[in-house]
Design a protein that fits this description.
There is one protein chain. By secondary structure, the chain is α/β, with parallel strands linked by helices. It has a domain of about 170 residues: P-loop containing nucleotide triphosphate hydrolases (Rossmann fold). The chain contains seven helices and 13 strands. The strands form four sheets. The chain has a six-stranded mixed beta sheet, sandwiched between helices. Helix 3 crosses helix 4. The protein starts with 8 loop residues before the first strand and ends in a 25-residue tail after the last strand.
């Protein structure tokens, strides 16, 4: 567990079983998230990852197993699919309060945290993939949740935007100390700030640090050696500081520009999976 994690269990699922439409969606899956911990769940499409997240939140009824949540747990949820009628006028301001009320100050503060304050009056249908995901992340932050459940938070975002969102998610964890459950089917990129990776294909195939999972026999058996070679850990090594929006800030001693000696290091695959 990361040094940032304080040991407080936010949610824990044991032996989760779910049967839908004649298929076993979850087969005895164990999963837990602690405060200050980032847990990334990877696996192919249809592996049961999203249903597992929904089960942990009490949004679907299980056929077996148990879920224990910290009493009074507050949760922010970014769902995998967020359908928006293309002809329905909907501003970002309105989107932020669709399911629950929030003050203008709270909305602005949440958008500021993700670097999206300037989008407040924009029509949601006009947003790029990266802009929409930032807005949805801000929406999940309303109420300062103890647990963030982010289902495919980088979907529809280009590679550069993926790096920025991963960095933003890590900074939010550092600032708030919240636990984060991050769901992804993209096996080619895992955020370096991840404390544990769970590999799921209806059952729990393997679990561990990102560097260890890609050499686990169960991972290799499921996804093959080529997938293991392509699995990369996103790292961001630099000699400057960022604010929550990802902008470079002065550290009080030096001002870092982006000249020839500026250092950024992103480890990621040369080719994105189709």
């Amino acid at each position: 567990m990361s040094e940032r994690a304080n040991g407080t269990s936010l949610v824990e699922g044991r032996g989760l079983r779910l049967h839908l439409g004649g298929h076993d969606i979850l087969q005895g899956v164990d999963v837990s998230v602690h405060a200050g911990e980032i847990v990334t769940v990877i696996g192919p499409n249809g592996a049961g990852k999203s249903m597992m997240a929904r089960a942990l939140l009490g949004l679907v009824a299980l056929d077996g197993g148990s879920v224990t949540r910290k009493p009074g747990l507050t949760v922010g949820y970014l769902p995998q699919r967020f359908a928006i009628d293309s002809v329905l006028p909907l501003t970002v301001r309105r989107l932020m309060t669709l399911t629950r009320p929030a003050s203008a100050a709270a909305i602005r503060a949440a958008l500021e945290e993700v670097g999206a304050t300037h989008l407040l009056s924009r029509q949601v249908q006009e947003l790029s993939g990266g802009e929409l995901q930032r807005v949805l992340l801000a929406r999940a932050l309303l109420g300062d949740p103890e647990l963030l459940v982010l289902d495919e938070p980088i979907q529809g975002v280009d590679v550069t935007g993926q790096m920025e969102l991963y960095g933003l998610i890590a900074r939010l964890r550092d600032r708030h100390g919240c636990g984060i459950l991050l769901i992804s089917h993209d096996l080619h990129l895992v955020m370096a700030a991840t404390d544990r990776v769970l590999c799921i294909n209806h059952h729990l195939c393997c679990e561990g640090k990102p560097e260890a999972v890609k050499s686990d026999p169960a991972y290799l058996a499921l996804f093959g050696a080529q997938a293991a070679q392509n699995l990369a850990v996103y790292t961001h090594a630099h000699d400057h500081s960022h604010d929550l929006a990802g902008e470079v800030v002065e550290d009080g001693h030096h001002h870092h520009d982006h000249g020839p000696d500026h250092h950024h290091h992103h480890e990621h695959p040369a080719k994105k999976a189709s």
